[in-house]
Design goal:
heterodimer, A: 297 residues, alpha+beta, Dihydrodipicolinate Reductase, domain 2, 60s Ribosomal Protein L30, Chain: A, 8 helices, B: 231 residues, alpha/beta, fumarase, 2 domains, two-stranded antiparallel ribbon, 10 strands, 33% helix
Chain lengths: 297, 231
């Protein structure tokens, strides 16, 4: 577990999931504005240098976030939280990652990215399976901090409110979230911390920009994806054809009076890596299969 | 028509005058990183008339808004790992004090600066250059030497790093020394028109206010207005 998490976090900082890189390449190809084309060229060159020289893509190597889904049939031995902490310390040293986690009141920094309840580990549970899913995310600040979460007036027209909120959220940030972004939207959930968590989690849906199984949600996703890409914000907000690489929406039941809406953003350097550990100990690296061929270090 | 410039520090007022919005710059010479804590310290030293205690000079040089990843490979020897620009807008209140105190000619960062900072650039004849956000492997590879580290008590991220760079770029002129800003112009015309067109296509009223809460962000003057008037 420790070894897997360490590999995921470290590798995610250096190489994007292939589908994100493909989407950036496609956006670069179809870009019509010269300045935006120059920016895409720098972005793709940066990805190449990071891969070849084994360097973090962005100096903001983020605050590590882990999503863990435990299968009910998996006999867990040992302490998962401790293993993830050790993995984070190791990945911070060996990559190296920026030492970001600090005490919120004193600014004290232990230099390990571990401390005072961090890294954030979100545990989920799946009945009837004998595997464990991990998503490791070095989540940078530029996009993470520019979220929106609002509670509409009870009785506000639902579709119009959702459309306007999402379009406004992207337009307000205007590229400061290091566009093109992956946009995660959530509607419903109660309280709003649940809404926000769903929106952030929606970012990591694969395939990128695939549609929700509920046709009503899928129709909103499609409308919004097209709408935000017509804003002309472009890469890093310099003006261009692609503002959003993918838009994923989730919905959840809510208090009858309200339908909270959250919008979470991920920068173009949308770094994450996923793996599945099976009951028999086999590890399947999902976003970066080459991790399975690395030797233990 | 946008131009491409290869500049070497020190940068003169004349060179800054020639830079226009959208021009691309590749910079060689000396640059210094600056971030939240170092900006604050310089502003405080300026206030307390203690600028003599700043252990480096920025006169006619360039500063980079950045908290880098640097690896120490020996005593006083470092390797740049990932060095890219951080969001500059948060440093806006510190820009004019920095220019007054230290006189750099170029400020390099990500995104843009507020009007307060733009006024400072005009007053001191400096320009703001935008690095492509997130491209820290690319920019880091253009550092030929990590020369020095000042105020190490701030830690790797917030201390001041002095770099020797070669063709550090691309950097685009985001705010020129006449106070024009690409972002402002783009937002006020292109983005505004696009946004209105999107509202129209989606059948939305731009004036509609559907939101119950929050009415204003806590910690802002808007919150005070709301708390005291309920408007």
């Amino acid at each position: 577990m420790e070894e897997v998490c360490c590999r995921l976090l470290s590798y995610a900082s250096i190489e994007l999931p292939p589908e994100v890189e493909v989407a950036l390449g496609a956006a670069s190809e179809r870009e019509s504005q010269p300045k935006a084309r120059a920016y895409f060229k720098a972005i793709l060159e940066n990805l190449r240098i990071a891969r070849e020289r084994r360097l973090p893509i962005c100096q903001d190597t983020g605050v590590p976030v882990y999503y863990i889904t435990l299968g009910s049939q998996l006999p867990i031995q040992g302490n998962l939280r401790e293993a993830i902490h050790r993995a984070t310390v190791r990945a911070t040293q060996k990559t190296p990652l920026r030492q970001q986690v600090t005490h919120p009141l004193t600014g004290e920094n232990p230099g390990t990215n571990v401390g005072w309840g961090m890294p954030a580990i979100f545990f989920d549970y799946e009945d009837g399976v004998d595997h464990l899913d991990i998503t490791a995310i070095p989540k940078g600040g530029g996009a993470e901090l520019k979220w929106s979460c609002v509670v509409p007036i009870p009785g506000a027209p639902r579709e119009e409110t959702i459309l306007k909120t999402v379009v406004d959220a992207v337009a307000m940030v205007g590229g400061e979230s290091c566009t093109p972004n992956i946009v995660g939207v959530a509607v419903g959930g109660f309280g709003v911390d649940y809404t926000e968590a769903l929106a952030r989690r929606a970012i990591f849906r694969s395939p990128l920009n695939s549609r929700h199984p509920d046709p009503q949600v899928a129709a909103l996703e499609k409308k919004l994806f097209q709408a935000v890409n017509k804003l002309g914000i472009g890469p890093l907000g310099v003006g261009g054809d692609t503002t959003c690489l993918g838009l994923h929406m989730e919905v959840a039941g809510t208090h009858s009076a309200v339908f909270p809406i959250a919008v979470a953003l991920y920068c173009w350097a949308a770094r994450y890596s996923k793996a599945r550990i099976h009951g028999d100990g086999r590890v399947e690296y999902i976003t970066h299969p080459q991790l399975g061929e690395m030797t233990h270090d | 028509m946008t131009e491409e410039y290869r500049l070497r520090t020190p940068i003169s007022r004349d060179q800054v005058d020639r830079l226009h919005l959208g021009d691309i710059v590749y910079l060689s010479g000396r640059i210094f990183t600056i971030r939240d804590w170092s900006h604050q310290r310089i502003a405080r030293y300026l206030e307390e008339d203690k600028l003599g205690e700043v252990p480096f000079s920025l006169k006619d040089l360039a500063v980079l808004h950045c908290g880098p990843v640097i690896e120490e490979i020996g005593a006083g020897q470092w390797r740049p790992v990932s060095v890219g620009a951080t969001s500059s807008s948060r440093f806006s209140p510190f820009v004019a004090p920095l220019l007054r105190a230290m006189g750099p000619r170029l400020i390099i960062g990500k995104g843009t600066l507020t009007q307060e900072a733009i006024n400072g650039l005009v007053e001191h004849g400096a320009a703001f250059l935008q690095a492509v956000g997130g491209c820290a492997a690319l920019y880091g590879s253009q550092i030929t030497k990590v020369v020095n580290n000042y105020w190490p008590e701030f830690g790797m991220v917030d201390s001041v790093w002095e770099f020797e760079v070669e063709n550090f770029g691309p950097l685009s002129v985001e705010i020129d020394c006449r106070g024009r800003s690409s972002y402002q112009e783009l937002r006020r015309v292109t983005i505004k028109n696009n946004l209105m067109r999107v509202y129209q296509e989606l059948g939305l009223d731009p004036e509609a206010d559907y939101i119950w809460w929050p009415r204003a962000p806590a910690g802002t003057p808007m919150a005070v207005d709301y708390a005291t008037t309920l408007e």
